User: What shape does this take?
Amino acid sequence: MKFFIDTANLDQIREAQELGVLDGVTTNPSLMAKEGITGRNNILKHYVDICEIVDGDVSAEVIATDLKAMIKEGEELADLHEQIVVKVPMIRDGVKALKYFSDKGIKTNCTLVFSPGQALLAAKAGANYVSPFLGRLDDISTDGLNLISEIRLIYDNYAFETEILAASIRHTMHVIDCAKLGADVMTGPLSAIDGLLKHPLTDIGLEKFLADYQKGN
Ligand code: E4P
Assistant: This one.
């Protein structure tokens, strides 16, 4: 399972990278705005800064919503750095753009996916990643994890190579549940990754080992 961090915060990206388990980064316009990164040039520079911190794929989202503009913007993003993956929304022109980029060998991540049908369409159009937003489904009392298992079943039935990127992960249990269900990738906040290493019995056990060592020395 690949671990992506879902943030545009460079300190958090560095911290996850230093832990040694980071495979990539996802961003979106809201995450950029949260860090105060505004204006086209600043946003493009920020993507490059992120690419220089991590080794893996970095998703950069197009703002355009019509095919022609999406293609222009996506090509510009892809030219920024070899690690850039063009993030395209699941809309009609987005599906066409996914197919266009796929034919041109530009990597894509289909975002804002909330149903198995949308995920099937993204795979048919050749998306490298599909991003089902499970946290946002949970927010409206719908089982987000169930969507992950439905997409897994469909993709396995036809051996689609599109990777399931479980997105909108909110906490550590989401990560574990997605791993059980066979999501290829998870993207979440640093806190969801950090939560994986915590267990009180580890802390108690280590404290005792160190105390016992001190008694004998
Ligand atoms: C995915 O790529 C999105 O950036 C993200 O996971 C959305 O998460 P949110 O629902 O917590 O905003």
